[in-house]
Design brief:
- This protein is of the alpha/beta class.
- Helices cover 23% and strands 27% of the residues.
- α1 runs parallel beside α2.
- 43% of the residues are buried.
Length: 308
């Protein structure tokens, strides 16, 4: 029987485990076959406190894992498969990962949200080499360069606006004939002299051998294709929260977990941390902060349960 089972092994999940184990709570992390979260797909991280020279994303996650394991956290590299989150016996949850089952008195959901990618040739292998999903994270790497932002919603507008602080030019590419963003965001983008907007167009290929050197653009109405030189591609077409397998947990209209009273879910004993509920910030440091909050709330909740 574990005191806490953490589902997810990104910054939120590992930070939560560091706190719960230091509080002498027996902790299990369901890390997944591909453990470590989105930072495992990044290269240099410059905005995580404590690393003035920057640190590679996978190295940062490896350090977090070692720290959690140092204090006694156990990690299972299997994918979460099911749990009704009903706590039918009133005392524990049965969490299934792979073909194994684990019992926990409490649960922290920290499964994050996956980026919606373009799924075009040249994209996957250039993630971290010119392809990005986070302007606040990677913008400084593109000082005085030309970049494109793909998307038509508020997130894309925000990415484009942030990139104007670094890049020489920003081209916004959207596959529809009108932008989906709010009027105030559209007005802001359209009035910025650094930003050019191309509609009815999608990226069909990302060019370059080792890093991004350009893109192939396709007009969705005529099918005409042309190449455009660029140093970076920022994909901003949305995220998919990893909540599909969570039965009994309240979700909002976009599929993110609803939060009640700090980090609690609608199910007693189940807490949430990180991008799986955070639709606004999506930063490693905020995910870690939410992990800390969830762990402290779990510790308090378990203490209250013990006193009953």
């Amino acid at each position: 029987m574990y005191d806490v089972i953490v589902i997810g092994s990104g910054p939120a999940g590992l930070t939560a485990a560091i706190y719960t184990t230091r509080a002498n709570l027996k902790t299990l992390i369901i890390g997944g076959v591909s453990w470590g979260g989105q930072l495992m797909l990044t290269t240099e991280v410059e905005n995580f406190p404590g690393f003035p020279q920057g640190i590679m994303g996978p190295d940062l996650m490896a350090n977090m894992r070692k720290q959690a394991e140092k204090f006694g956290a156990e990690i299972v590299e299997e994918n979460f498969t099911s749990e009704e989150f009903s706590a039918s016996n009133g005392k524990s949850f049965t969490i299934r990962a792979g073909d194994r089952s684990f019992e926990g008195r409490s649960v922290i959901l920290a499964t994050g949200a996956d980026t919606k990618w373009l799924d075009v040739p040249g994209e996957k292998e250039k993630i971290g080499r010119g392809v990005s999903t986070c302007a606040p994270c990677d913008g400084p790497f593109f000082k005085n360069k030309d970049v494109i932002v793909v998307g038509g919603g508020d997130s894309a507008m925000e990415e484009a606006e942030v990139m104007t602080r670094y890049a020489t030019s920003v081209t916004l590419i959207h596959r529809r004939d009108t932008l989906r963003a709010s009027k105030i965001m559209q007005d802001k983008i359209k009035s910025n002299p650094k930003i050019k907007i191309i509609l009815d167009t999608q990226v069909s290929k990302i060019l370059g051998d080792f890093k991004v050197t350009g893109v192939e653009l396709a007009n969705v109405k005529t099918g005409e294709k042309r190449e455009m030189a660029t140093d970076g591609v920022f994909v901003a077409i949305g995220h998919i929260p990893n909540t599909a397998l969570f039965k009994g947990i309240d979700l909002d209209e976009k599929g993110y977990i609803k939060v009640y009273e700090h980090t609690k879910t609608n199910v007693e004993g189940v807490f949430v941390a990180g991008d799986v509920h955070d639709i606004h910030y999506k930063q490693a440091i905020t995910a870690a902060g939410f992990g800390c909050m969830a762990a402290l709330e779990v510790e308090k909740w378990l203490r209250e349960q013990n006193s009953k």
